[in-house]
Structure formats: C-alpha cells, structure tokens
Design a protein that fits this description.
About 55% of the residues lie in helices and about 15% in strands. The protein has helices spanning about 1-15, 20-55, 80-85, 120-125, 130-135, 140-145, 160-165, 210-215, 220-230, 245-260, 265-270, 270-310, 310-320, 325-360, 385-420, and strands spanning about 65-70, 90-105, 110-120, 155-160, 175-180, 195-205, 215-220, 235-240, 260-265. A hairpin with a 2-residue loop joins strand 2 (about 90-105) and strand 3 (about 110-120). Helix 12 (about 270-310) packs across helix 14. The radius of gyration is 33 Å and the shape is elongated. It starts with a helix and ends with a helix.
C-alpha cells in the first residue's frame, strides 16, 4: 500500500507543472536524450543485422553447402575415391574434389599473383552457382566441360579482379607459372624451376565477394594437378546437399564417417571470420552508444536533484505526516524510473519506426556507384533479442539514477532536520 502511495506521488510529480521552468526543460531534455540514444542503438544494431543478412544471402554463389578439408596440411590423398564415398552419406546429393593453391599469371606484359582453383566442370557448376556468375557471352567453359586436350590453351574462368588488373578480355591468352614441388632448383636456368602452361580466358565471373573476386582463376582440376605435381590429391571436397537436408545433421554424419582427420564446415563456418568481425563491430558500437545513455543518466540525476530542491518544503510536510526518510526517497526513486522508462520506450518505438522506414523505402543510401553496390541502401533487420539487449542498459541506468536520486532526497531531509 505504501509502495503504491510513493509511486502515485512520483507519477504526480512527473506530470505536474514545475514551479521553475528550468526543471521542466531539463527533465524534457533528459527524456529526449535517453530516447534518442536508445533509438540510435536500435538502428545501429539493426543495420549490422542487415549487413549480416546480406553476407549470408551471398554465400550460395561460390561457397558449397558443406566443405571438407584436411585437419593437417594443405592437401589430402585419395580425393576422388573419398568424394565417391562421401556421396553415399545420407543427405548428400553431390560431392566433388577441388584443388587450390597460389600461382603467378602473366598477361598483356603484366604479372599478378593469383589463387588457382582446379575443379571438375560439370559437378562444380552444380555444387556452386558459378555458372550464373559468368558474364553473358564470355564463353561456355563450365557448360561444355572441355578438358586440356580440347585446345592448345587451357580454358580458364578468371575473376573480375584479375580481369580488371591485367586488362583481360574474353579470348585473351595468359601464361601461368607455378613453382615445382619436386626436383632441385637450377640456378643456371631459373625458369626450369617453374611449371608453366598457357591459358585462354573463356569466362569472367563476379561474385561480389572479395575472397573470390580479387585474385581467383578457375581451371580444370587435371591442369592444376599437373602444374602442382599432384596425382589424386585435393585441398577440399565441396558438397551439395539434397533438398530438405539439414547441414548440421549431414556434417555430424560426415564427422562420424571421416573421423578426426578432416574439418567439416557449413556455409556459415566457411565465412566465420566475416561474421565474427560484424559481430565484434556490432557490439563495440553498442558499447559506445551505451556511454551516451550513461551521459543521459547524469542528466536525469541532475534534473531530479533540482526537483528535490524544488519540493524541499513538501519533504517537511511528508515528514510531518509520518513518512520515513526511506519512503520519501522512494518517491524520487520512482520518479527516476518513470523518466528512464519513458525515454527507453520512446526510443525503442522511434528506432522501430526509423528501421521500418529504411527497410521499406531505403531512404539512406550507400555512397558510390549504385550499380556497383551489392545493395543500394543500408540494409536493416530488426531482432527481438536486440530490443531486449537495448533495454538492459536502460534498466540499469534507471536503477542507478533511482538510487542516486533517493540518496540525495534523504540527505536533503537530514539537512532540513538539522536546520530545524
């Protein structure tokens, strides 16, 4: 009953007209500051969620559903037979070995270090969406499935980054150099220390993912194995799941089948570093904006301290009516909670409105060429968990300011008693 009384008095103080206009102004500013800071947190967290969603939506281009790599070393032997065995696991529609390593390409009197990836054309085009990434009219290497013996120059699909840097156009010839893994270095003839082959640009792809677009070249796996002096080795087995299969369940079956000698990763884990960076940036931004909430909390303390001074005569009346110092302090503690709650709720509502507007209308656009951008406007995705996370600092600040304001009110009552 007494708690209801203190809460009712606090509510009356909140909505009543203040004697001094400065108190009302500072109180309004405190609520607005809390609301703006809370809305900023909601918007920033939602934008980071949007970017995470964009990255996740791009994973189905050149990232397979599941990738199997060796736990030790760059390659593993018996890749072809292992891929055939993996294909028998429940939930797997197709498995194909790939071989990746570093090399040097020369074209138009320019040279560039690249990452070559050897694939078997037909299954690789089914495991990934690489066929959809090749620009129209740039060749049919993946569709035709041509191999080394079909033409003098080995057909290659180069990334947009390699094509731009070396000025490669469809049909241009290139020279590929890879250091010999076996044999001794001949100082009298350094060129003999490299395996070489001539390539022809049969296609140019663009995935809008830096790890694939910067320096990638896709070749037949037979060519890459010959250049790197491998037999049946591969650096990964890339897997396409059957419709309706769950990646986590299939990955667990693969772990049981292959043992500890291999690492099995789904699409999310293949991009773990990118997602981790987004998560770190998201919560660092959350902490920085949380400091703004703390500053708003100091404004609440100052405004309610002025309210205590304004109601100092009423404090004596409450004391005469039999209210203890603790009860009177609770009045101003409730006042602080009301102010913090009003600012937090208003901020969340404002943040949701702004996020919905951005999500549907894309008012704030990303700078630069809109045709070259993956998304023209900042992406937004609101999550309920982020809203609860935003309420936590608001609640903590409300409780902290409540204790501080109540303590100040009790101290004023003690001073008034001493003066009397």
């Amino acid at each position: 009953m007494r708690s209801d009384l203190t809460a009712a008095i606090a509510w009356r103080y909140l909505i009543s007209k203040k004697t001094h206009g400065a108190v009302a102004t500072i109180s309004t500013v405190s609520v607005c500051a809390m609301a703006v800071a809370t809305a900023a947190i909601v918007c920033v967290l939602s934008v980071f969620n949007g970017f995470r969603q964009v990255i996740a939506s791009r994973l189905d281009t050149l990232s397979p559903d599941i990738m199997v790599t060796a736990s030790e070393g760059k390659v593993f032997s018996g890749a072809d037979s292992l891929a055939a065995a993996v294909s028998d696991v429940q939930g797997i529609a197709l498995a194909t070995p790939t071989l990746s390593d570093n090399a040097l390409v020369i074209c138009n009197s320019q040279e560039m270090p690249v990452t070559v990836k050897g694939v078997t054309a037909a299954p690789y085009a089914k495991v990934t969406a690489v066929r959809d990434l090749i620009a129209e009219g740039y060749g049919d290497y993946l569709d035709s499935g041509r191999h080394d013996g079909d033409m003098t120059a080995v057909p290659a699909v180069v990334s947009i980054g390699v094509a731009a840097r070396l000025g490669i156009r469809p049909g241009d010839g290139m020279l590929l150099f890879a250091p010999r893994r076996k044999g001794r270095v001949n100082l009298a003839n350094p060129a003999s220390s490299f395996m070489t082959d001539s390539l022809s640009a049969a296609g140019i792809y663009r995935s809008d993912q830096a790890q694939f677009d910067d320096d990638g070249i896709i070749l037949p796996i037979t060519t890459v194995r010959r250049l790197l002096q491998y037999d049946d080795q591969a650096s990964a087995i890339e897997i396409r799941l059957s419709p309706g299969a769950m990646a986590e369940d299939v990955a667990e079956r693969l772990r049981q089948r292959l043992g500890t000698g291999f690492i099995i990763r789904d699409r999310m884990r293949q991009q773990e570093m990118n997602f981790r960076m987004i998560s770190i940036e998201k919560w660092v931004s959350f902490m920085l904006l949380g400091f703004i909430l703390v500053i708003a909390g100091f404004n609440i303390i100052s405004s309610l301290s002025m309210l205590v001074l304004e109601k100092e005569k009423a404090l004596s009346t409450f004391t005469a009516l039999g209210l203890t110092r603790r009860r009177i302090g609770r009045i101003f503690a409730w006042e602080s909670i009301y102010v913090s709650a009003a600012g937090g709720v208003a901020g969340i509502f404002l943040g949701l409105v702004l996020c919905l507007i951005q999500q549907h209308f894309g008012i704030i656009t990303i700078g630069g060429d809109p045709d070259a951008a993956i998304v023209p406007a900042y992406p937004v995705e609101v999550r309920i968990s982020d809203l609860f996370a935003t309420l936590l600092p608001v609640a903590a600040i409300g409780l902290a300011t409540a204790f501080a304001t109540a303590a100040f009110a009790r101290s004023r009552i003690s001073r008034s008693a001493e003066c009397q």
